[in-house]
Structures are given as structure tokens and as C-alpha cells.
Amino acid sequence: MDVSPHLLIIDDDREIRDLLSRFLTKHGYRVTTAKDAREARRVLADARIDLLILDVMMPGEDGLSLCRDLRSKSATPIIMLTAMGEETDRIVGLEMGADDYLPKPFNPRELLARIKAVMRRAAGLPASDPAERGKVLRFAGWTLDLGRRRLESPSGEAIELSTGEFELLVAFAERPQRVLNRDQLLDLARGRAAVPFDRSIDVQVSRLRRKIEADPKSPQIITTVRGGGYVFTPMVERA
User: Fold this and answer.
1) pLDDT tens sequence across 101-123
2) What is residue 5's DSSP assignment?
3) What are the φ and ψ backbone dihedral angles of 101, each rounded to 5 degrees?
């Protein structure tokens, strides 16, 4: 049985699809390609996909819309490809639930490194001590099960998190009541898969707040320290 990770490349540029397919196949991945959102949905209906590489600019339904729709149904990791300099697309992509982004043009080896980093996070292979991942963390009525990669609300509802959101929440919950700046959070939650300084952490914090705060506009769990970063304020119990 072939257990190689199965990647889906969604890009309207046939040359890019073919180049990446050959390159990633050479590096041990199974690769399927799609030229647009409609074709991608047909593939997803028939195959188990481990990670998507999704271009933002496509005819018909664009990558941002497809990303939002897929994220509402699945936690499958998504890496978005954006035009060079289009910071808005990158920020919106992260808000839609993408796990990482890469601006075009790019070196295929850079994409390969991003794929490996995102899949490590999705598989629960963290930067922190792997032995710690069997823990359950409880805070403010919430339950974060690191082994099962599951977040439960105080009412017992399972809350869907992208891999980036999950790793960021773990970084906070394992270091409560400490000021963590953006560079530290990039190191802890994204393994420096992003550029040294960008707005991706702020975007992920905003998404987390919408999911765990009673009032995201007046956050009590993840608070902002002006000029410093963020603090995870609750007491955390470890089981």
C-alpha cells in the first residue's frame, strides 16, 4: 500500500502544475493536479488528500473563496500561492484558514520546505518536547487535548482549528501569563515557516479570539500588550 502523502496542486497555469508535480513526485509525494476549483472539488470527493497547494488567482472561483469553503468542512492543511507583493491576499488567505503562504515566483525547494513544515505541524510533531503532547490543558472552562489535537468549549462543543491556529493556541497555553512577542510566537507556532516579520501572527490571534473569546473585540483570554506582543491570561491546569 502506498502511504506517501497525497498532495493536490490547484493552479490554472499548466506549466506550474507540471513542474511542481514532477518535482514533488521526485521527492516521494503522490501528486494530483487540478486547473480550477471545480476540478479540485471532484478530486477531493474521490480521494483522500493530505495537503493542498492552492493558487489565489484562478478563473472562476478564486483560491480565497475555495480556501474558505474547504476550511469550513475540513482541517486539511492548505498552502496558498500568492502574487509577489500582494500582502492583502496573504493576510486574507490566513484569515480564511490557510496554514501558510508562498509568494510567486518561488523556488520549488522553498515550497518543499513549507510542505514538510506544515505537515509536521498537522501531524502533531511540535517544536516542543514530543513527550509533552500527551497532555490535556484546561483554561477558563476550555479543554485543549494535545494528543488528540482537539479543543472543546466549556459546553463540550468541539471547535474546529486549522493547524496554524492549533499550534498558536498550544504556544500560548503552554506559556500562560507571559508576554510573547511576534517573533517568539513565529518561532513557537510556525517554526519560522513564515518570513521573519509579517502580520500572520496578528491574523491568527484574531481568528483564535473569534473562536474562544466571549467578546473578541474586548478579549480577556488573549490580551494585547502595546508594543510587546500578547499574553495568555488564564491559569492553565495540566492533566
Assistant:
1) 888 888 999 999 999 988 877 76
2) P
3) -145, 160
